Amino acid sequence: MKIKILSSAIEDLASGRQFYEKQGPGLGDYFLNSLFSDIDSLTLYAGIHPTFFGFHRLLSKRFPFAVYYRVEIRSVAVIWRVLDLRQNPKKTSQALTQNEEIQ
Question: Which of 28, 54, 59, 79 can bridge 9 by disulfide, Cβ–Cβ 3.0-4.6 Å?
Answer without folding.
Answer: 79
